[in-house]
Amino acid sequence: MSGDTGTHDLYGDTVGDVVVWVEDELTEAYLNRLWNDIEIRISVAGCGSTVEAATTDARKAGLKFVFGVRDRDFGKTNFKQWTKYEQNIEVFRLPRHETENYLLDWRALAGCRGNRRGRSAQDIEAELIEHAARLQWWFATKRTLFDLSAKLSRGFPRGPGQTKIKDDREALKYILTCRGWYRHVSELPTTSINEANIRRLLMKHHERVHKALSTKEWIEVFPGKELMRKARSFIGHPKGKGSKTDADIDLAKAIAEWQVEKSKQPPDLIALRDSLRQRVFSSS
């Protein structure tokens, strides 16, 4: 952390302030509207690794009321530890893939001010399930790349665009040919990354997401950002004069407003707020 910024700006006005680092502006805006808690200050770190770093730096500086909140992504949540107050959790990992998954609330999407086209909750849900079904191989590709990245980071490719992956052949071709990383890895004498193992991972993750789409589990494991943007377009939420991100944030606020008004806040996020308050204010 830069010394020019100072403890005042990074961690709060006083040592007693509660600061929660999140990954992006959408999460900040959504949680602020959802919680409406003036005693919890939410700050944007920019990405998951920066959430970890900012929280660690604050704790090393002696500020124990600083926490981080990260998307689960393809990793693991620590949700079961949230109510175990004897455990010192610094960074909370969400139970769902990312914050946008909590915006996939069909009733909220139908009832919020952004639903300019008057879509019903049933129509929105059906549209999003259909869209997710079209992205099954895209999902499998992203999930496979995540698994492989744990073994290698040099020159590792990003996930594909949503329109690039329609079947197992395109998924495998993308992984094996983009950026030339696979050629480099396959030439290493001790690597376990080969075409057969990659194909096995692809098939495994495609089978899992295919099964998930027949249950309510899919809403937790499928990347939410792409589906949320599909929902935004489907209900006719205005794009406004700003960027795509600005429109996403405005929809997140609209959904939070509906959830609060109807007392339908996601239980996970209420549990997160309660865990923060219990850890901080019960010890002050």
Written description of the protein model:
With 284 residues, the chain is an alpha/beta fold. Among the domains are: 6-100 and 265-281, Rossmann fold, CATH 3.40.50; 136-212. 52% of the residues lie in helices and 6% in strands. It is built from 13 helices and four strands. It has helices at 6-11, 25-35, 48-60, 106-111, 121-134, 136-149, 168-177, 181-186, 195-212, 218-221, 224-235, 244-261, 267-281; strands at 18-22, 40-44, 66-70, 91-93. The chain has a four-stranded parallel sheet, with helices on both faces. Strand 1, helix 2 and strand 2 form a beta-alpha-beta unit. The longest helix has 18 residues, at 195-212. It is globular and about 55 Å long. It starts with 5 loop residues before the first helix and ends with a helix. Mean pLDDT is 87; it is low at 1-16.
What attributes characterize this protein structure?
single chain, 284 residues, alpha/beta, Rossmann fold, four-stranded parallel β-sheet, 6% strand, globular, disordered N terminus
- Biggest pleated-sheet summary: 4 strands, parallel
Shape: globular
Please state the structural category. alpha/beta
Q: What is the beta-strand fraction?
A: 5-15%
Unreliable parts: 1-16
Summary?
The chain is of the alpha/beta class and 284 residues long. 52% of the residues lie in helices and 6% in strands.
Please render the helix and strand layout as text.
Elements: H1 6-11, E1 18-22, H2 25-35, E2 40-44, H3 48-60, E3 66-70, E4 91-93, H4 106-111, H5 121-134, H6 136-149, H7 168-177, H8 181-186, H9 195-212, H10 218-221, H11 224-235, H12 244-261, H13 267-281
Parallel strand pairs: 1-2, 1-3, 3-4
Helix pairs in contact: 2-12, 5-11, 6-7, 6-9, 7-9
